[in-house]
Amino acid sequence: MTAIKIDPRTVPVVQVDRHLPAVEQQRLRPDALRSRFATPPVWSPEFSIEKKFMEREPMAAAVLLPIVLRPEPTVLLTLRTPHLSTHSGQIAFPGGKVDETDAGAVAAALREAEEEIGLGAQFVEVLGQLPIYVTGSAFHVTPVVALISPDVVLTPNPFEVADVFEVPLAYLMNPAHHRHHQTMWQGVQREWLSMPYQDATTERYIWGATAGMLRNFYRFLRA
What we know:
By secondary structure, this protein is of the alpha+beta class. The protein has helices spanning about 30-40, 105-115, 170, 210-220; strands spanning about 15, 60-70, 75-80, 90, 95, 125-130, 135, 140-150, 160-170, 180-185, 190-195, 195-200, 205. It has one domain (about 15-220): Nucleoside Triphosphate Pyrophosphohydrolase, CATH 3.90.79.
C-alpha cells in the first residue's frame, strides 16, 4: 500500500502465519539462490494487485530486492523521507519509475539504487525478476532480485532516503513474522501484510507493497 491516510500500526491483525514453514537456511545461501533463479519452479505470486486508491495513469516501475552477502544474508531496505509525493515515510526497496532511457526493469532498478543510496552496479549481481506487483497508486512494479557485495559503502541521497538498514533474510522468509491486516477505508475493505522487525534501536515497520513483494519471494523460494 502507498499514501493511505491511516496509521497501519493501529489496524487490527487478523492472522499470523505461524502455521506455514520457514524457508530452510540452505535455500538462502548464495549458490542456492543462484540455482533457484537459473532453474525457476512453477509457482504463482500470492500478492499481485492492490485495490486502487489513487486515480492516475499506470506507470512502470522497478525496485531492487538487494540481498547482502553477510555470513547470514540480509535484505537491504530504505526509509523514505516524509516529504516525498508517494510512499513517503515508508520502508521500501531502492527503486522508482522506469524512464524512457532505461533499457528495461533491471537497468531502471540499478540506476535508481545508485541514485538513491549510492549502490554502484559493480557491487551488484542480478539474479532475476519476480512477477509485476501493482500498487494501489497504479505503479506496475518489477522486483529485481540481486546479491550485493558486503564491501559496498553506501551514500544515501538525503532528499529521498532518511535511513538505510538491513533485516536478516531468514527473518523475512519466516511466515511466523507475516501478519495480515484488514480495515475499511473509503468504503472499501483493504488488506495487506506487515513484517515488523525490531533491531537494536528501532522497530522497522515493513508493510504494504514491500511486504507483499517479500511474501511473493517467500512463495518463490518455497515452491
